[in-house]
Amino acid sequence: MAHAIAFYIFSGVMVAAALSVVFSRQPIYGVLSLLVAMFCLAGLFVLLGAYFVAALQILLYAGAVLVLFIFVIMLLNLDKETLTRLRPLSRPMLGVFVAALFCVQLAWLLAGRQALPIEVAGGTALPAAAQAGSVADIGRLLFTKYLLPFELTSFLILAAIVGAVTLARFHDDHA
Amino acid sequence: MTITLNHYLLASGLLFAIGLAGIMIRRNVLLILLCIELMFNAANLAFIAYARAWGDLSGQLIVFFTITVAAAEVTIGLAIAILMARRLSTLDVDEAHRLKW
Fold first, then answer.
1. Closest Cα of chain B to A18: distance in Å?
2. ipTM of this predicted structure
3. Minimal CA–CA distance to A46: which of A87, A7, A94, A78?
4. Hey, is the C-beta of A48 within 8 angstroms of any chain B C-beta?
5. How far is B29 from chain A (nearest CA, A)?
6. Which of A18, A64, A96 is facing B38, going by the closest CB pair?
7. Each residue of A15-59: pLDDT tens digit?
8. pTM of this structure
9. Which residues make beta-bridge pairs with B28?
10. Contact (CB, 8 A) for A91 and B25
11. Which of A127, A134, B19, B86 can bridge B38 by disulfide, Cβ–Cβ 3.0-4.6 Å?
């Protein structure tokens, strides 16, 4: 019961914050709304027993990615005219139509499936691996089964660093 | 009132649909990037829910990689946004119709 109440609170606030991102007037409000959504998502992760991933979600998204967004918005130092001149909506009907189509398709898919249990107290006993979202278990898996993808992500990060530096230091004298 | 996997999948699908609609509706490049983040997180939620339901920790591992890819993507995306603001002095994606500048 407590699980259900927490689920509905977290997911409700998350969806409201996501809508607020889409309809925010200024990018900075969008970033702050996304921050609320990230915290609610971390709460959902805790409900699912993924404690370490929930901590990472807050550290990496709220701590790094969103700060990067705010940093860039401040760095751009756009005048108010540039920010407000942007027409807020371009193709509202198309976007809403595609999203609604997606929702209908998803509901249709889910309606035909029998629900898998999530709660431990719900009756079905879950395997021990599912309940242990501990750092040790995740680390063991990361350095054995998923070692190659883990190492390859370092190349991805390196490529992203080089790309960002190359793009950002592209000054007018090159033009 | 039991919360099942379907509830989480529905929340994830709603989040994804909102992000998708946002990408089509908005034309500010920063807000489009934020909506892409929303879609990444919807996928993360589905992965974590399935990891729990199937008792497999691999779903949580995939989320690590998703977060890494999202961080790389947002770095490049924001660099492009800075470049756009400098060169075109706008953040409107419809204004960026030249392939080279």
1. 7
2. 0.89
3. A7
4. yes
5. 9
6. A18
7. 999 999 988 878 888 899 999 999 999 999 988 888 888 998 899
8. 0.85
9. B92
10. yes
11. B19
